[in-house]
Amino acid sequence: MNTQEPPISVPRSKPERITGIAHVFAAAGYSIGGLRRLWQETAFRHIILLLIFGFGVLAIAGAGFFDYCLLLILFFCLVAVEALNTAIECLVDHLAPQWEEFARDAKDLGSLATMCLLCANGVFLGAVVVRSFVLS
Prior knowledge:
Blueprint: H1 21-39, H2 42-61, H3 65-95, H4 101-134
């Protein structure tokens, strides 16, 4: 059993609000930071591989421009949900370092959201394949 106390964090003052054009650049920096953090997740790296696979499926199926656009839209939705799922996991791990039922539920629900968008991507790719090879 671990009897070591968690480290005490020193409270920091809230940074000043950034406005104007500087806010746009700051927001872009925050997004890049989020992307760097998300890259650490194996699931995100698998999602990138699935996008490459999806492009391959569309190429083989002779898909059109709008099919590629729809795949990208679904992909960006999947990335957004995976980012939110990772954020939930980070918060839950911070709030509940020991096993808690609410923590399990929060993580399971985030995982469900990601799985739903993975399935949506799969349904779309399946529909393109059926349209290209079965119905034509």
